[in-house]
Amino acid sequence: MIEPEPPHLRKPPLTTAEKLARLGGIGLVLVIAAGAFAYVNGSLDPQRLTPARVVDVFEHNNGVHPGYRRNHPKGICVAGYFESNGAASTLSRAQVFAAGRTPVIGRLALPTGNPYSPDSAAPIRSFAVQFTQPDGQQWRTGMNSMPVFPVGTVQAFVDLQKATAPDPKTGKPDPAKPPAFFAAHPEAQPFLAWVKTARPSASFVTETYNSVNAFVLVDAQGKRQAVRWSLVPAAKGDAPAPDAKDYLQQDLSDKLASGPQRWDLVLTLANPTDPTGDASKAWAGEHKTVNAGTLVVEGDSAQLDGACRDINYDPLVLPNGIEGSDDPLLAARSAAYAASYMRRTSEVGQLEKPPAQEKQP
Q: Residue 68 and residue 317: Cα distance in Å, rounded?
């Protein structure tokens, strides 16, 4: 049992500004989405900003770790299947929703930019999944445990990065800048409300993972229905993170040793007035949901030689019956993921060894 620290050694709780600074690099899903969105849509000069150049920013901020993903680099491969109950087959003609099993290869990860980050470095966890249908078509999705993005436009996100950037002298953001930014951006309030109470979890398997972006299901007659989806865990728990650097991978392996881990795939159907092109906006009010089936994880393996290693979890790799929505961040993520993927897969022979004082989980 770990004894609690004496009161005089306890660290004060993080301020909102410090939490946001810590969250500043949590996802290709966030920073790269902003930059690549601008590139794909031509709203910035490609000579100044491209997906590759945005990946350069991650390398500048986090260091270069050859062979690792440029973001979410600390993770673990998982494998299993999706057991569809057929309930979503009336909404989409995708084979994955027909009753039966679809094999999956996934990756659970910590959204930071450093493969040696402590597991408590950020409260967000991520889950990427690849479903491979009998006809060979694939559905790839990258989900995060946060409910919404902080802002909905490129300019706002760039301004957020500036407002929460740590000062080289103090390692913390200027305390005056985040409040000024959020006063000018009320759309960030849902994310702020979440981050104020968010804390690192003790386990991957008790987290709910959200698509955040909207997608469109298309049925056999061509009828379209916008949705967001979530993986809702069967396992329950709200334990605080252990006082240890690495614990998520061991916890997952321990839980899998006692049996498969399960999540329900829950589709939230958009109402006619719900925004589908702005991931910073929650869908308010009552919504119809459909439990499409259960994702079952049966085993795990190290990410450096596991089946997930060479998968680019591009959110626009979609089977017939699932389409991207009008959310511009989807095209942005797709473009930037490709740039990161090409870079890391060219470094196979240069795989970085962990620092001497560190141990791989």
A: 21
